[in-house]
Structure formats: structure tokens, C-alpha cells
Design a protein that fits this description.
Helix content is 0%, strand content 62%. By secondary structure, the chain is mostly beta strands. Strands 1, 2, 3, 4, 5, 6, 7, 8, 9, 10 and 11 form an 11-stranded antiparallel beta sheet that branches. The radius of gyration is 16 Å and the shape is globular. The chain starts with a strand and ends in a 5-residue tail after the last strand.
Length: 172
Amino acid sequence: MRSFSILPEDDHRHSLQPGEREVFYFQLTSPDGAVFGFLRTSFDHERVTEGVTLSIDGLACEYQCETQLARNARPGADASGPTLTLTCLKPWNNWRCRFSGVVPEIGTQNGLQVDVELSFAAVNTPTHYLVGDYHRVQQDGLLNGRLRVGAETWEGELVCYRDHSWGRRSVD
């Protein structure tokens, strides 16, 4: 595995061939650990899978949905699914993350209203690794904004680890 330089457009979605994947991942936690989770979209040539897992003070939820991509869907600064919005505002610096929906509470049959309104700001330069034909970029940052899981609301700054990967993955 070697480190490589990257271009601003590498922080956008890529045109994928059959057998290739692209994943946008934001893992988050509050400094005290009371809030944690992740936001993720995963693309292949034909589909997008959204994932949201959040916990606020022990109230936890998990959402996953796979959807066919629209025929006219074009790669670009938008890495969104139909419900989870991930938008690149400035490559390798700023992203906006939004979600709103009813999500199953982990361990129960209950549905919880979940709302996410976060802005990502990078705190370091991204590191780009190439593993065969698979690109992986990792970056640290801060998320600022508001989260709601059921009756629990959190507002402020979260520590965030971001991963953006694309290509033909040869290892699991």
C-alpha cells in the first residue's frame, strides 16, 4: 500500500464500471462519548445503499436502504441517496450531511424520528492510499450541527473520521 496525491475532483463521485464500488463514510463521536455513530452511502454501477447508525445517551437507531440509481444519475459533488444527503461543498475541506426519517430503534420494534443537520470541516490534509485498483482516502475533521434521535437532541461539535473509497476492491 502506497500513499498518492489526489485531485479536488477525487472528492466527488466517480463514474463506476460493473464490479466497482464507491463509499462515503462519516464516523462521528462526541468528546464525552455520549453521542456516536456513522453516516454512509455506498454506490455500485446500478445501486446506492444508505446507512445511518446513531446513539445519543444510549438511545440507538439503525437505518439501511438500498435503491436503484436513476438512469440519468451523474457522478459529481453529490454523494446522496434518496434520504441521506451528503454534499461536497469544497473538496477535501467541507461537506454537508442531512437526514430526516423514522428509523428503527435498535433492539425494539419502535420507530424513532431521526434528524441530522451537520457540517463537516477538515482539520488535516487527506491521505490517499492505493491498494491494487482500489483508492482509499482518509481524513479527520469536525462536524458541527444538530442531531435528534427520538426525544433525545444533541447540538454542538463532534469529532469525525471520514473515509472515501472507490474502485475495484481486491481485499475484504
